[in-house]
Write a structure and sequence with these properties.
Layout (H helix, E strand, L loop, with lengths): L6 H32 L4 H20 L12 H28 L4 H27 L10 H20 L6
């Protein structure tokens, strides 16, 4: 039997998939953009990569249950995703701070690295606040904050890289 779905139904079914993919892809992009510019082979960086790998595994676990349009039981999944995003940002903050420590004599690089750290810290704090206030009753459209966070973080990375040649790609 052929099932006919309207465009509105298809959009409703695909929206969570695109939203989740955006969160996943931009989280991956943040990690890759750090690695391209500052990646080294050290024990600290290997541990950071291990944590980032764990973040991606958690995305794979949470992904099939990601549906912000559902209001019954999905708030647990959304809270888990918040924690994963916080962990990812905290590790990136530690990585950027490590680079700052190694280049502390070069004043040209400190400012753009500090801007990255501040942007990631704001994102992490927003995710923690979202985690603490996120319940089944407050689910609604609140998850859109994730899209705002990832867009602002990506914009920060590209604007800083475009302005400061020392941290460009």
């Amino acid at each position: 039997m052929l099932i006919h779905r309207s465009f509105a139904e298809e959009k409703k079914l695909l929206s969570p998939i695109f939203g989740f993919f955006a969160i996943l892809w931009f989280t991956w992009l943040e990690v890759v953009l750090f690695d391209v510019r500052f990646g080294t082979d050290s024990l600290f960086e290997r541990i950071a990569k291990l944590v980032h790998f764990g973040v991606m595994i958690t995305f794979a676990i949470v992904g099939p249950r990601f549906d912000p349009s559902k209001h019954s039981g999905e708030h647990v999944t959304m809270r888990q995703l918040n924690l994963v995003l916080v962990v990812s940002r905290v590790v990136l903050i530690a990585q950027y701070a490590s680079v700052m420590l190694h280049v502390r004599g070069n004043k040209k690089i400190i400012t753009p690295l500090a801007i990255h750290i501040v942007a990631l810290a704001i994102g992490a704090v927003l995710c923690v606040a979202f985690f603490l206030t996120f319940t089944q009753d407050t689910m609604g459209q609140a998850y859109i904050i994730w899209y705002v966070i990832i867009a602002l973080e990506a914009l920060t990375v590209f604007v800083v890289a475009g302005h400061w040649r020392a941290v460009s790609f």
